[in-house]
Amino acid sequence: MSADLRIGIAGTGAIGKTHIERINTRLRGGKVVAATDASPTFGKATAEQYNLEFFPDCDSLVASKKIDALIVTAADDDHERFVTSALKANLPVFCEKPLAPTADACKRIIDLETSIGKRLVQVGFMRRYDPGYRELKRLVDSGEFGAPLMLHCAHRNFSVADNYTTPMAITSTLIHEIDVLRWLVGEDYATVEIQQTRPRQSARSANHDPHKRQRHTHGRRSTRDKPHRLRHPVRSLLRRRILETARTPHRPAPPPRATRNANLPRLVGTFRRSVQY
Ligand SMILES: NC(=O)c1ccc[n+]([C@@H]2O[C@H](COP(=O)([O-])OP(=O)(O)OC[C@H]3O[C@@H](n4cnc5c(N)ncnc54)[C@H](O)[C@@H]3O)[C@@H](O)[C@H]2O)c1
Q: Which is more confident, 242 or 158?
């Protein structure tokens, strides 16, 4: 049997430690053997805990020839630099999402990988491997509920770190939906629109408001990320009615419900126009 893949890790924070723990204690075929972190105190303590060699920076880790692959779990702004360093050394690299915080930086990485001529980069988009998402995809593909016309997605974190800023709601959080919804419905996006809601009083000063509402349209479909519950009962009712109407041809639409709201037909029209089929 071949020897374990020797893995280096750049960034021994929350997710970095999770990867070390999982690879070194629960998986076979690879071992994290070396690490670097911007905080030597913290990084060295983690290295000692898991019996890893500690390097002062990512360049020296990559140049050491002591690793066969690199995992990048440092802060987003450093991803491009570290992935580039691994690619230049011809090392496979797993980079936590986002690959980089800007499209230009991602393109530079892809161009470099393309020029090398083999796939060396994998990004940490893991939802498509999640049993819940896989079951959802199976149901979507089965057609049992008809074509998906609208998706409501919510991303809830109990808390975020102090360095979490408003743009990270897109580059670090929404990015999961941008990735997985393509896979889920097998379609690319026509447009992506970000709508800012009113700041809440409880929002931290660094953030306009971490909760935003996003709308993506792919072709005729519409995807709306809804980080907080629709509290308005009429909107909820409309949403349900539209989704029910959309469940064709696999299921006949149920008969219209009795409603006491005389404005419902007008509101349905407004709502339909707002979701861009
Ligand atoms: N796939 C997912 O769902 C998922 C989940 C959590 C985090 N992440 C990603 O993983 C990355 C790290 O997130 P985290 O929650 O572990 O953050 P964290 O702040 O807990 O850890 C980041 C670590 O990187 C270190 N670091 C920062 N700059 C560095 C540098 N120049 N060189 C070496 N080390 C450096 C920090 O000292 C810290 O220890 C982020 O890009 C985040 O988006 C992905």
A: 158
